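Researcher: Let's run the pair from yesterday's discussion. Sequence first, then tokens, for each.
Model: Starting with the first of the pair.
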Amino acid sequence: METFDYIIVGAGSAGCVLANRLTQDAEVNVLLLEAGGKDDYHWIHIPVGYLYCIGNPRTDWLYRTVAEKGLNGRSLGYPRGRVLGGSSSINGMIYMRGQREDYDDWARLTGDDGWRWDSVLPLFKRSEDHHRGPSEFHGAGGEWRVEAQRLQWDILERFIEAAEQAGIPRTDDFNRGDNFGVGYFEVNQRRGIRWNTSKAFLRRAADRPNLTIVTGAQVSALTFEGRRCTGVNYVGGGQAHSAAARHEVILAAGAVNTPQLLELSGIGQGERLQALGIQVRHALPGVGENLQDHLQLRSVVKVNGVRTLNTRAASWWGKLGIGLEYAFNQSGPMSMAPSQLGAFARSDASQARPNLEYHVQPLSLDKFGEPLHAFNAFTASVCNLRPTSRGSVHIDSADFRQAPVIAPNYLSTDEDRRVAADSLRLTRRIVASPALAPYRPEEWLPGPGFETDEALAEAAGNIGTTIFHPVGTCRMGRAEDPLAVVDQRLRVLGIDGLRVVDASVMPLITSGNTNSPTIMIAERASDMLREDRRQQLAA
């Protein structure tokens, strides 16, 4: 058994940040364990390669949800990165922080002003390398590269004009704390190539003698001495291994795998664990609860007289031209993030701040992984940014190799069904704006036959799919919160030497894409860990 100061479980977005920051102290040694392999698969780095990474066991855990009542009995694929860089190696590359009020709510729920927007903004800026340079809201010179996209589509320009005509103002920056507006997403790329957290943070630290990185290492259980977590057991290369931690074990395995590992180790709902033959080490009823995710409703609109990717990529000559454009300039469709244009809006006038996010694409297909439609069309996906539905992630086997049961419980509240109906109506208003009229837009999905609230909620169940933002399954909160799993410093309640640093700690989902907020959480956690160590050494 080897001994380290810190053991980090998961080399995803948070784990890569932590490994970099902690090993900046030369006297600290760190073990970073990743169940997946190295990020040396070429499709990780070509932006359009997400098509070949999602659903691929080389890079994806291949999870699925249960059959969801709110989705009319459908089960969804639930991609999670299983590779160095985690989900930042397979995601949409969109740089998004959320809204000021998201973080102010975290501070209120945890009693810690360090989570307020004004407190976390410097953390976002610290790791940022923004293409426009430093400013009040952006940083430059950090590890996390943010660039403008390298593309141009007439249909997207017309959508911007249509959204403006529907009352959504144009913006060139969604990351100032109020993301109301319509404009192009900025992306985590460097000159048209995906910039994942493995490149950004881990590569800079990989040669440090105080960092040990082990890939193909799946943790099976945490180890304990009384109430203190002392290390981990893991399987790698077909053999069982153990490692000990002098200071802390840090779970950075994500909103699915972190609660799974806690339950496998006897931390969670007592009756649930006992029924699986797992000894209860510490009862924490909130483990695996509070799952929140953004459900996107994909409206497909046929258009005429304007070209979209559907027809540009229809022929071999078109595909060849696209390939050559990327090969020589790293631009064009192969450089595209899955969604290129965004908009943040209110589903109705009563909303105090934007509660909807649009992801707009100059293409359409029946569902992810299927061929593009033969006709010109664009897709306007809209999601409820702050759903009230809550789901769960729980194990149903004591075997660590078995996938947990993922039940998002989408559209399970009246409010979420109402917002779904209102958001589809807003999409129709945008499409009906004068800017798009020359292209004779025709709703293909969900179809014009859905009009009432009930019918539109049913339509949402037919077309809704995850946008890959699961959070909240080990939420932070005050000690008196019965479903809190970690405190405001991300320490597991009732257990010493164990911390959770990933998207699972979010008490409320952020109002936007969740990858960069997870990086910010890891930045703050690295400060906490270093502060705690200094205090221990001084004591």
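Model: Moving on to the second of the pair.
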Amino acid sequence: MPHTRRQLIRTGLQATLLGTGAVLLQPATRAGAAVVTADLVVYGATPAGLAAAIQYRRSGGTAVVVEPGTHVGGMTTAGLGATDTGNTAAIGGLSHEFYRRVYAKYNGTPVTATSPARFTFEPHVAAAVFADLLTEAVVTVHLGQRLAAVAKAGNRITELSTQDGQVYRGLVYVDATYEGDLMAQAGVATTVGREGNAVYGETLNGVQLRDKHQFTRPVDPYVTPGVPGSGLLPGVAPGTLAPNGTGDGRIQAYNFRMCLTRAADRVPFPRPAGYDAGRYALLLRYIEAGYTGPFFNTVGVGGGKTDSNNDGAFSTDDIGMNTAYPTASYAARDTVVAEHRTYQQGLMWFLANDPRVPATVRDATAAWGLAPDEFGATGHWPPMLYVREARRMVSAYVMTEHNCRGTTTVADSVGLASYTMDSHNCQRLVVGGVAKNEGDVQVGVPGPYQVSYRSIVPLEAQCANLLVPVCLSASHIAYGSIRMEPVFMVLGQSAAVAARLAVSTGAPVQRVDVTTLQGLLRDLGQRIDVGGGSEVVMDSRGGGGSGAGTVTRAGTWLSSTSIAGYYGSDYEHDGNTAKGVNRLRYTPVVPAAGAWTVQLRWTAHANRAGNVPVDVVHAGGVSTFSVDQRVNGGQWVALGTFQFTAGSAGSVLIRTEQTDGYVIADAARFVRT
């Protein structure tokens, strides 16, 4: 008999609210109870894990999700609402469906194959979307189930047991954790830290002293300025900087992605237990040297809220304090998480309250606070630390910088990635007598690239029935590009399709027919072919993501949400002024030459212009249209189909000359025909 929603909303530990009050959890059975069995056992309720279970259930099999913590949805529901998309044309399948459902949730519209996608969202909205997907697929999630042991027969996992004695048995397993605990206990080869550049012939791995999120003024790192013997200020590590490209065991910094608001009912930043203002002595010196910010960033996600991240040399990243985390025990990890929470809450308290901080900085910080309608169970603080990198599998194929740059391709693609090769700082130390951060890398990729199936399965001799879509086989710097939530969902779905094939044929996951797998993935809308993207969507406020293209402006464009039907988190308008001066151009990165239909989106109102000139620059020249923005709002309006060359030679320009009302710039869409 199918589970009811009520049967899916209890847990043996605590209830974790998803969205508007629904929770999709199963009581955690205790030692001595019946063993939980399913075709597919997923460890980790991250987006990858949820996508794997949902896909497997949709295919007719049975699946269960086992989550070591008490939070469902990973970072997507824990504050990372400004999605790191890369090129949105590379996001397909269930992952793209998730973002279309987010749009539908905000706009109250049905979800179709051509629905718009929204990549910025409030945490509770993302949680509600996952709740819908889990309910529809009848997926059970067991919370508070920390892994204790893995049993194997030969090279196959036969069961996993958790610390409370519960046992889960399946035919195939997916490790969807951010830490890679299941694969490690199953005897799969793993690595932690940065390889030297020489290992895979890379240029961006290992030690990297660069200028991003770096001190822009000299700051003395010693307790007594100028006296090395007096010791180092908190946050500065001892040691000598190794040459660029040198490998080590360090990993990029973690933080909490805060959901902030300026609303009157905002929750003031808490003063954490164990607060020590001395931890921020280096920051105070930086401020005294003339630094005025930013100290954190605030990217709007809707509802007057933000996804706030690290920004600057001394910010929310607790640099160097996570080194032990990847391979630590659960208890030791809890200590690391608590350390990061104390540091970041203390930082916000310091910036908002310490009298030594300039009043302008204090006032600007105190104008923000925690969103009162998010994360109520954890005091409105994010429930999960952003583990950007932990263990990585070492398998038959290791994704490297060469894949990211497109100089190496694979024939067994099961998904695309496209984000910048991105690593946060890994350490802070003394260089030339001043404090320096080391490890931050931000280097773009030329376009979407393929992720190898071999990189998400272990060596067969090590484990024949396990797939690893999160802690996949990749070098440190390649992982920095792949490690984005949309890609994790893509790979989670692809892992589930492969698992279904393995179960149906009785084959090890390493021996499923890749051609058959790829055909099934294409049928599901998964995008696995470079140059095969079927659409490029560009939001005027960045919803298209870096890699989708660029939005450039002349004059002044203002953000608004006053008229419904917009794509993403808002739309822009010209203020009905500076006619002929205000212009906005969408320049997409077209993944393949050919015929593309160009569509434009706006919000309609009687005060809009009825004669907006729009130029489409294409391979055949420039075609000009006059658009009436008083009608057809909140939908994609086709301007025509044109030939485009691959790359960024084409564009769509919205002009304002002699327009008779407000001119709107919301989003542009390029659909391959």
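Researcher: Give me one sentence on the second I can quote.
Model: The chain has a mean pLDDT of 92.
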